[in-house]
Amino acid sequence: MAIMRRAKPVYALNKCVLPLAWIEADFPPLPCGTMSMTSPIRLMSHNRQWQQEFQQSKSLLLWASEGWIQEVEHIGSTCMSDGVAQPVIDMLAGLQELRGLNEAAGLIEGLNYVRVESPEWCADELTARLCKPRVGEITHSVLLVRQGGAAWRSALAIRRWLQEHPADWQYFQSLKHNHYTSQCDAADRYAAAKAEFFQTLEQHVQ
């Protein structure tokens, strides 16, 4: 996918919809007092160990999938070289043959992952999402998609854009700081703010 270069960063935020091209470990929040995968929200400064953890996780996924997964990419905020992020290693796993999707997902479950609902932004594609650990606070998330498909291309295009446009990356960081609180509805507001940003951004990377 060719990425259109712009002289200025993308700042305009329009109507809020679900993001079409970025994967972070965010799930619909549950009411106060209910345990959920978004509670509590934690933002941490960049940790160099995140890249090392990704490499180890990538090796395990490629080994466990018995050849179904051809490539694994590090996405989400933990793949960036600076800034704050939720401490979750988000990964995109590409399969050349989707007939092996369920088998690959089952094999990955053996690594202490649990299969969860796939994100809405890729509802038109056959995908599988798994999170680790099976019980407790999420530390890893992997989305299985067709390598080279729309979801694969879109997620990598967004990653590349933010790596090449530091002003947009810094603006996204400011959104995180401005919308993050420890209140009960923090997850909802935090996810909505990110959704606006990526909805607008994706329109400029097509």
Number of strands: 7
Please state the oligomeric state of the protein chains shown.
single chain
Count helical runs.
Answer: 5
Proportion of beta-strand residues: 15-25%
Shape descriptor reads globular
Largest sheet: number of strands, sense, barrel closure: 5 strands, mixed
Low-confidence stretches: 1-39
Order of helices and strands: EHEEEHEEEHHH
Q: What is the terminal separation in angstroms?
A: 7 Å
Main-sheet strand order equals: 2-4-7-6-5
Structural class: alpha+beta
Q: What integer is the average pLDDT?
A: 79
Could you list some keywords that capture this structure?
single chain, 206 residues, alpha+beta, 5-stranded mixed beta sheet, two-stranded antiparallel ribbon
Briefly, what is this?
The chain has 206 residues and is α+β, with helices and mostly antiparallel strands. Helix content is 34%, strand content 16%.
Descriptive overview:
The protein is an alpha+beta fold and 206 residues long. The protein contains 5 helices and 7 strands, in the order E-H-E-E-E-H-E-E-E-H-H-H. Helix content is 34%, strand content 16%. Helix 4 (166-179) packs antiparallel against helix 5 (186-202). Mean pLDDT is 79; it is low at 1-39.
